[in-house]
Amino acid sequence: MIDLPYERMVRTAALDWLNVQDPGWSRPFRHEDLAAFTFLGRSIPLMDLQKGIRKPRHMAAALSIRTRYTPPGEMRPYDDQIGSEGLHRYKYRGTDPQHPDNVALRVALRYGLPLIWFYGALPGVYVAIRPVWIVGEEPGQLQFVVAADAVEKLVQPGAGTDDDQRAYFERLTKQRIHQPVFRVQVLAAYQHQCAICRLRYDSLLDAAHILPDGHPRGTPEVVNGLSLCKIHHAAYDQNLLGIRPDLKVEVRRDVQVEHDGPMLLHGLQEMNQVDLWVPLSPAARPDPSRLEERYEQFRRAG
């Protein structure tokens, strides 16, 4: 039996709680953070530390799913994929369709109940993608179909899609999953500071792409990222400043000779020829070839 009103109330409360904790969809969560959620005086940890599928004992449907962090260059332990129509797949627990965890996801599918997807950004660190829905099941492939947006819920799993629809779902995946993960990874690599001015306020920092999303090498990975404060991110995107492959910041010549106020003077002009601060780990440092390509764009713009 399922107490459907209760299941819905718990989910609404959990989503509201996450929105308070993470209003900008950019906060990294650890298991201990997610263990703080309570509902009607009952402690209900939102993520299971040992399993990918979280179903509290007193509930019938799964409350969340988890995808563990996989280091760059390694294969994910579970081959979660995106189908031809652009929807995500989430693998069964094991191979038994009747495993209680798989049944719990099937109950969420049957009643259209929203879930939370905790997606690994770093070891033990997750971003909360919410809400998501189980919208189909593919027993032959031992997997469920996941919609990460209300629009995706309208798509028939396995159905063909045109190029525009597929492009829309790809953009959605970047916005809802890849971008939050990318931000957590980049800010951690740069020790939560702007690589140009060293500002350390997370709320004023962005994970900037060296090569943009639409570029073939504009992937959301740390080597294509820079931790920049919002003003330097905007200046970089608009080619008011560039970053040379030798990790020197270069302010555009016409910007250097302008007269305006203290923000222009201290925020931009004095950044000319400063050394970019880069991560300690060589594997996390910006890719020189991407910096070079992006710097050439800056030179042409100037």
The CATH first-level class of the largest domain comes to: Mainly Beta
Strand content: 15-25%
Assign the CATH architecture of the largest domain. Roll
CATH-defined topology of the largest domain: PUA domain-like
The total count of helices amounts to 8
What is the CA-atom radius of gyration, in angstroms? Answer: 22 Å
Q: Give the averaged pLDDT, no decimals.
A: 92
- In which order are the strands of the major sheet placed? 3-4-6-7-8-5
The arrangement of helices and strands along the chain is HHEEEEEHEEEHEEHEEHHH
Uncertain spans, ≥5 residues at pLDDT below 50?
Answer: none
**How can the largest sheet be summarized?**
6 strands, mixed
What structural keywords apply?
PUA domain-like, 31% helix, 302 residues, 8 helices, alpha+beta
What does this structure look like?
- Helix content is 31%, strand content 19%.
- It is α+β, with helices and mostly antiparallel strands and 302 residues long.
- The protein has two domains: 4-161, PUA domain-like; 190-301, no CATH class.
- Strand 1 and strand 2 (42-43) form a beta hairpin.
- The longest helix has 27 residues, at 163-189.
- The mean pLDDT is 92.
Present the secondary structure layout:
Blueprint: H1 4-21, H2 31-34, E1 38-39, E2 42-43, E3 53-54, E4 64-67, E5 88-91, H3 100-111, E6 114-122, E7 125-138, E8 143-147, H4 163-189, E9 205-209, E10 225-229, H5 230-237, E11 241-243, E12 249-251, H6 253-256, H7 262-268, H8 288-301
Parallel strand pairs: 4-6
Antiparallel strand pairs: 1-2, 3-4, 5-8, 6-7, 7-8, 9-10, 11-12
